[in-house]
């Protein structure tokens, strides 16, 4: 998965587990950038009476680097607070929730947003919003009869033209986990696998599951180091780096009076995420937990796994005779290094660059001067759509296919014109698409979460009147 349960330790702490990060120029408001960080993976909608929610004891952050150092120049911090309205009931809600302030909702959650700006040795903090409401989860047709209306009520405006949303959404990431982690099989190419089986369509393992999303929409000039809109794609200030983290206090102590654990001491990072599948597929098992607690600026130690990714060596073995040119390629994968760790310099792709400097760091790199595409291609840049992954990441981008084809050698000619990719490199895929709730045309773009009453194993429906 993009980063669902991607490392041994964070898989035991789902409330702090980041699953996906998105960064794109807003298609319906191109003067802004939308940043989204998802947490709490694989939420089964019918999970009452204790439904999913953000952790009150977790510090969630979305970071932006704009100075070329791969360090956070701007951070947006989120702290959540949950209360119980009626201590005498076991129920999440005692009647239909008609609006997000409804007394029938027994466990409302609110949050505070703080912007931290770092310039040289000076750090400034500004609280952008307090007591902002989350929507409830989508319990079902009786409890949350008009879920889209509840979600709309949770979209709030912040100072200086910003918007924010924090709450449950349908997972838009799609992947065939059952096949990929069964010895690297891709169902559409089953017959070519070393252990061959009949070919079939891929199966989306995240179908019917929800996540919790933090979404921000911010005017472009507030994210660049110059404080203005870039002059064009080639403007060095046009590219920003984006990643998300979750942190916990250093110690946890069981408070017997409160009957729960409380945090003590300084905040320590326990999860981070930028490019999809980086820790999942690139970083070896023994390094995954350490990767999660380290900053992107220290990723030089991991670049050897990008230069020679394990999966690129496995593909020719798992699919004998299908990738002979990839098997014979002995050079370091400079194409993957540029895509994942530095951004693509000018001159590699005509009319495009998202280079952030020589410091290798796992960040989503978004050139904010590239306008939204009227008809987006889910394969993004490799299909000629420069507004898509790996130029940031849109919620509809098929990142699994893009990364499979890149690892299979399709992007090597960008930096090594002497290489001709195997024919299969342009066709390899896991055969899935987003079969969860439909994406929205406007902020926060991710689809409404599947409801507990409506959801059957393997399917998701937001119900009549809830689209």
TrEMBL record:
Region annotation Disordered: where it falls in the sequence: 447-467
Pfam families linked to this entry: DUF4331
Species this protein is from: Nocardioides nanhaiensis
Ranges of Polar residues composition bias in the record: 456-467
Name this protein carries in UniProt: DUF4331 domain-containing protein
Top-level taxon of the source organism: Bacteria
